[in-house]
Write a structure and sequence with these properties.
This protein has 793 residues and is of the alpha/beta class. Helix content is 65%, strand content 9%. The protein has a 7-stranded mixed sheet, sandwiched between helices. It has a 5-stranded parallel sheet with strand order 2-1-3-4-5, with helices on both faces. It has a 3-stranded antiparallel sheet with strand order 11-12-13, covered by helices on one side. Helix 1 (3-24) packs antiparallel against helix 2 and helix 7 packs parallel to helix 8 (479-492). It is elongated and about 230 Å long. 36% of the residues are buried.
Length: 793
């Protein structure tokens, strides 16, 4: 190699190292390490250039250049090579570790900045609300004070009016009292008149009785006189008859005298008859005399009675005159009483008017007094509210808002998966705070970094619950990290919202699972691959990371495939450690398996290992056309980080895809890009699951009226929400898993994931799979993941 080429190598590589050192300097204790590292790396490469050819140095230079561009997933060649080339490769590994450490430090500082931003936002919310409340209260108190002043004036006016009306009423009452005295005197006079009338009436009654007796006596006398008169009339009639007979006798005597013969005898007879008639006349005359005497006595009695009647009538006339005088006197007394009563009535009317006015003034005074009392009570209440508001504000400032624990790795093998979830939670917390918080309090994020260290998830969860006093935990990705947190939340009565698909076989009252169970993702994905639409595959290579989720999920898949008549040499299984980089042997094995035809790969690989896995597939020329991969842990974020073309044609199975065309999804993507400031930022299924879990929790807090985990869990069970996917999902009230739809996507050449299948119906969760027990190759250590049944609290 020429000295010129060696110089170019030294200069170019030193520049890369210096560039890397300059970029890392702000995140490390001091830049001197990299200023020393750059010349050393350059000198090493320069010296080695004399011994090595260009072909050997090119891969190493490419790796160093990628490190300078902050590429964390750089595969450094020659790390097992002895000699100067191997030493340079080891130095590059150290540089990669430094890049990773710097990236971790940058992520942690960003998280600290986000926490401080949210804390400031929370304080701004508290301060703003306090200022608003205080301004409102002060305004209300000012209005109340002015109203109180007005009411005091009104009260004084009413009091003066009442006083004036009362004085008028007193004067009117005095006049009415005098008039009533006059009426009393007149009433006494009228009583004496009535007493005189009563005495005269008694006398009149006596005279009337006497007159009635006299009239009765006179009536009897007149009746007797009438009888005597009747008798006289009879006597007169008799005398008339006698006279008639006497005339006849005379006639007869004349006749007899004319005859002359028997004159003697005929006169004798006539004489006897005249004698008899004379006797009758004599008797009648005596009777008449008697009757006349009686009539004379009756007349005398009648005259006497009439005289008595006249005298009685005179007495009655005198009594009538007395009655008339008494009546005149009574009329005068009554008139006086009437005039006095009329005057008294007028006075009483005036008094009533005055008293009514006084009562009205008193009522107005009472109303004004009540209003004054009401305003006083309002002022007291507002002062008390202000006092509580000040105390609450000071308490909020001292204690902060509602604390939300964010338990996602910002470094290590899971950082690429979990960082977006942490950042999304920050975005949603800020949105809630801008809207006024929950229950009138802002949310405050407490962000920790478990560093992809599984036991650290458990210890940090305990710290968040006991020291930081968070009300809820959002976090974890892998099942092993969740299983570290599960006993902590159960022991301490906390809540965890877990956002990632998992193997099932678990159920805790303290965890809400917003990711899929195998029957909502893995099994229908295999059904799709076996269908004509999916390719009609009958042979499957199951590959996963060596931990709980892939192990149990692949056991369930083996049992499910066995139930479909697929097993034996048609199913292969392999596991790799977290962060696995060298996939050459595994991909070679997959190619040999695919030679049998109709084969597909089911991937449960998690974390950074996916980058190296798909790179190796591409390096060995494996494409979706020759051996398609259906991945359960590769989403839009992972596809974007792998680069365009690397995943083209391969498949993913989720419950949400960014390519879903719904109004809710468009708003979700726009909000996420606005938050990140990246017009190309992507969203994925765990992000939607985080969004759903966060908003379900917020709604449950509002419904329960408290952040108490037990009350919130009860409120969240059975709740529904429409997520970014545009489908209303439901939290199962019994097992705390979501009812979700299936979505299958295909990766395009530019790294996007397009939706090729969207199941219309919700799939109910099945935390316990029947296919685990159906697996004929079941391993005992994988068969004892027990369901949890405890009471939250």
């Amino acid at each position: 190699m020429s000295s010129r080429w060696a110089g170019l190598i030294v200069g170019g590589t030193s520049g890369v190292a210096v560039a890397a050192g300059g970029w890392l300097a702000p995140f490390l204790p001091g830049p001197w390490i990299y200023w020393l590292l750059a010349p050393v790396a350059g000198l090493s490469i320069g010296l080695t250039a004399q011994l090595l050819n260009r072909r050997s140095l090119t891969p190493l230079a490419r790796a160093l250049r990628a490190l300078a561009l902050r590429e964390r997933f750089v595969q450094v060649p020659y790390t097992q090579t002895l000699g100067p080339l191997g030493q340079i490769a080891q130095a590059a590994l150290k540089l990669r570790e430094a890049v990773t450490d710097a990236d971790t430090l940058a992520a942690e500082r960003q998280a600290e900045g986000q926490q401080q931003t949210i804390r400031n936002q929370a304080r701004a919310v508290l301060t703003g609300r306090f200022e608003t409340d205080a301004a409102t209260l002060l305004s209300e108190m000012s209005d109340a004070t002015q109203a109180l002043s007005r009411m005091a004036g009104t009260l004084l006016s009413h009091a003066e009016a009442a006083d004036e009306r009362s004085a008028t009423g007193v004067r009117t009452a005095s006049t009415v009292s005098a008039q009533i005295g006059t009426m009393a005197t007149a009433s006494d006079r009228l009583a004496h008149v009535i007493e005189g009338i009563r005495e005269r009436a008694n006398e009149s009654r006596t005279v009337t009785a006497s007159t009635v007796a006299t009239v009765a006596s006179t009536n009897a006398s007149v009746a007797a006189l009438t009888e005597a008169t009747a008798r006289i009339a009879s006597i007169a009639t008799l005398i008339g008859a006698i006279a008639q007979k006497t005339q006849m006798l005379a006639l007869n005597a004349s006749i007899e005298a004319a005859r002359a013969g028997d004159a003697g005898r005929g006169f004798a007879v006539v004489a006897n008859e005249v004698k008899a008639l004379s006797a009758q006349i004599t008797a009648a005359t005596a009777d008449i005399r008697t009757d006349v005497g009686q009539m004379s006595g009756a007349v005398t009695e009648a005259v006497t009675a009439i005289s008595d009647i006249a005298e009685a009538i005179g007495g009655l006339d005198r009594l009538a005159a007395g009655f008339a005088d008494a009546a005149v006197e009574g009329e005068m007394a009554a008139a006086e009483i009437g005039r006095t009563a009329l005057m008294a009535a007028g006075g009483v009317g005036t008094l009533v008017t005055d008293l009514t006015a006084a009562a009205g003034a008193a009522a107005d005074t009472k109303t004004a007094s009540d209003q004054v009392m009401g305003v006083t009570v309002d002022l007291t209440r507002e002062f008390e509210t202000l006092r509580h508001s000040v105390a609450g504000f000071l308490g909020d400032i001292r204690g902060g808002g509602i604390r939300v624990g964010v338990l996602h790795s910002l470094s290590g093998t899971m950082a690429g998966c979990e960082r977006p979830l942490q950042d999304l939670l920050v975005m949603m917390i800020e949105e809630v705070n801008r809207a006024g918080g929950l229950l009138g309090r802002p949310l405050e994020a407490v962000i920790v970094n478990p560093r992809s260290d599984w036991p650290l998830y458990g210890s940090l969860a305990r710290k968040l619950l006991t020291e930081d006093k968070v009300s809820v935990l959002f976090g974890c990705w892998t099942s092993i990290s969740r299983k570290e947190v599960l006993p902590v939340v159960e022991d301490l009565g906390g809540l965890l919202l877990y956002p990632v698909q998992y193997e099932g076989e678990e159920q805790s009252p303290n965890i809400f699972y917003t990711g899929a169970t195998p029957n909502q993702q893995a099994l229908p994905a295999v059904d799709y691959l076996m269908s004509p639409q999916g390719g009609g595959f009958r042979r499957f290579y199951l590959v996963g990371t060596d931990y709980v989720y892939p192990q149990i999920t692949n056991k369930i898949l083996q049992g499910y495939l066995h139930s479909k008549g697929i097993g034996g040499s048609d199913v292969a299984v392999s596991f790799t450690p977290f962060g696995h980089e060298d996939w050459s042997a595994e991909v070679t094995a997959m190619r040999r398996f695919a030679a049998g035809g109709k084969a597909a790969v089911i991937s449960t690989v998690n974390g950074d290992a996916n980058v190296y896995f798909y790179r190796e597939l591409a390096r060995q020329g494996v494409t979706a056309a020759t051996l398609p991969v259906m991945a359960f842990s590769v989403g839009e974020n992972e596809a974007a980080s792998l680069g365009a073309g690397l995943l083209e044609g391969h498949l993913v199975a989720w419950n949400y895809l960014m390519s879903l065309e719904t109004p809710e999804n468009r708003r979700f993507i726009e909000a996420w890009r606005r938050h990140t400031g990246d017009a190309k930022a992507v969203t994925d299924d765990p992000m939607e699951a985080t969004w759903i879990g966060f908003h379900l929790w917020c709604a449950a807090v509002e419904k329960a009226g408290t952040t108490d985990p037990k009350a919130v869990a009860a409120a969240m069970a059975g709740s529904r929400i429409t997520g970014p996917g545009g489908v209303e999902v439901m939290m199962d009230p019994q097992n705390h898993h979501l009812h979700k739809p299936l979505a299958i996507g295909r990766v395009t050449a530019d790294g996007r994931i397009t939706t090729i299948l969207r199941a219309p119906a919700l799939l109910p969760p099945a935390p316990s799979s029947p296919y685990l027990s159906a697996n004929p190759e079941r391993v005992g250590s994988l068969a004892t993941t027990h369901l949890r049944h405890k009471t939250i609290g």
